[in-house]
Each structure stands twice: as structure tokens, then as C-alpha cells.
Design brief:
The chain is mostly beta strands. It has a single domain, classed as YmcC-like fold, CATH 2.40.360. It has a 16-stranded antiparallel sheet that branches. The chain has a two-stranded parallel sheet with strand order 1-2. A two-stranded antiparallel sheet has the order 15-16. The chain is globular and about 45 Å long. The two termini are 30 Å apart.
């Protein structure tokens, strides 16, 4: 999945933040049918199709208006799951980078979930922005914990490993009706995304936001579950809820840009 506990998950090796620090490599992906610098819905990656990703076209300086990722940025969310449990989700853009198997160097973003002060999920997500301003999701190393020990790393994947493909997390120019994949690792991570509306407002504990994008997210591996998410310019994800297949709510309670 992509993003938060309701949103994102990603077959990778064990990794800490310090282990994620790398420099850019020069590998490319062969046999691609879609170019990375896609700006229209028809060009955005779909399903399992491979993408042609030239590492020279990517940067770890991510300044997309609807998904800004300056190192040091921190988002704190309150999540209410189906059982009514209150979870805290903290997402932090680290100063670390990782060279992905497809040759692209990505920014490392840590996503930690706690319940009653205990860590229950810890994920390192990998993002990069192409020359057109599209933000790509390159994979993740995720771990779920039980009684302080790793229970599973299911959902982890890395673009370029075992057929896994990168996906778009936010296009450079979001438009109504755009539909594309966010990630692809067969049988593990196949999230899809459609932009429902551009514009509108949303109130969350962190404040009131205008010019909000509303999206619909689903996964063919679990087609009964449909999520709706909202993104604000200059901030990113502010609100998330399940609209089918269960209950769940995520709200932004604090946004801290880098000092």
C-alpha cells in the first residue's frame, strides 16, 4: 500500500535510515512501454506495464505542490481503525537517500504508527520526482510489530526487483479523471488512484484548507475496499477515509515544515 496505515504498503531487505544513505547510480530499465515524464492520464502508468526510467531525469528534491517533501518536514496524523482504536501516525522526510534497483536515487521518508505509545508499524518509503514534476513511488521497506518483535514485512517491494514497478503518487498537473497506478508488485502491492475533483475545501484538526484535491484509491487485490483521500497545496495528505469495505479515518493534526 502507499502512504499511511490506510493508504500505502510496500519485497525489500531490512533497512534502517542510516543504511538508506546512498549516491545516485546509472542503471536503466529495459523493455519499457511508458516514459517516466508522463503528464497526461493516457501516459500515466497502468496495471503491470513497465516504465522507462532514466535516472538522470529524477531528483530527490521534491517540490510538487500537492506532495512536497523537503527534508525535515513532518506530518502527524490521528487514525481511527475499524475497531475504534486510536493510532498516531508520524511521517518524516529524512535527509537520507536510497539508490533503487532501477537506478533512480530516491528520497527516504519514514512512516511510523504507534498505539498507546507502542510502535506497531515502521515503514521507509522511497520517492523521487521526475523532470516534469510528477512524484514517483519507488517502493518501501515495511515492518509490522507484535510484542516488540517484527511480525511481518508483507507488502514491502522495490522497483526493479522481482518484476516490481514504480508508480505515480502525485502527477505534476493534477486533473479531474486522471487514473493511474501508484505501485505494482504482483500479488503484494497493486494500488490504483483516480483524481475525483480538483478544488474544494476540507477542515481537519490541523486547520482549514482550500484548493484541495480529492482522490479515490482502490486495490484489485482487495476490490471491496475503496478509500477517499484529500490533499492540500503546500502540505500534502490531510484527510483519508474508507468509503466502502469497512471503516477508518485519518486526519492531519499537525504539519511541521522544516525550520
Amino acid at each position: 500500500m502507499v502512504g499511511l496505515a490506510l493508504a500505502a504498503a510496500g519485497c525489500g531487505s531490512d533497512e534502517s535510515e542510516s543504511e538508506a544513505e546512498t549516491t545516485s547510480g546509472g542503471a536503466t530499465t529495459d523493455g519499457a512501454t511508458t516514459t517516466a515524464a508522463a503528464t497526461t492520464s493516457g501516459d500515466l502508468p497502468q496495471g503491470s506495464e513497465p516504465v522507462d526510467m532514466d535516472p538522470a531525469d529524477f531528483t530527490t528534491q521534491i517540490d510538487n505542490a500537492y506532495w512536497p517533501m523537503d527534508p525535515g518536514t513532518r506530518w502527524t496524523y490521528r487514525e481511527t481503525d475499524e475497531e475504534g482504536a486510536k493510532l498516531e501516525v508520524v511521517v518524516t522526510v529524512t535527509g537520507a537517500t536510497k539508490e533503487i534497483a532501477n537506478g533512480v536515487t530516491a528520497r527516504v521518508v519514514r512512516d511510523s504508527v504507534t498505539e498507546d505509545g507502542k510502535l506497531i508499524e515502521d515503514t521507509f518509503d522511497w520517492y523521487a520526482q521526475d523532470a516534469e514534476g510528477n512524484v514517483w513511488y519507488m517502493g518501501e521497506n515495511t515492518a509490522e510489530f507484535e510484542n516488540g518483535k517484527v511480525k511481518t514485512r508483507g507488502g514491502s517491494f522495490e522497483a526493479g526487483v522481482d518484476g516490481a514497478q514504480a508508480g505515480i503518487i502525485m502527477p505534476a498537473d493534477p486533473q479531474d479523471g486522471m487514473q493511474y497506478r501508484q505501485e505494482y508488485y504482483e500479488g503484494e502491492a497493486e494500488d490504483m488512484f483516480e483524481i475525483k475533483t480538483v478544488g474544494g475545501s476540507q477542515d481537519v484538526p490541523a486547520g482549514s484548507f482550500d484548493d484541495v484535491i480529492t482522490t479515490t484509491d482502490w486495490n484489485p487485490l482487495d476490490p471491496k475496499v475503496i478509500e477517499e483521500k484529500q490533499y492540500a497545496p503546500g502540505v500534502g495528505l490531510i484527510y483519508e477515509t474508507k468509503v466502502a469495505g469497512g471503516e477508518g479515518l485519518v486526519e492531519l493534526i499537525e504539519f511541521s515544515p522544516p525550520s
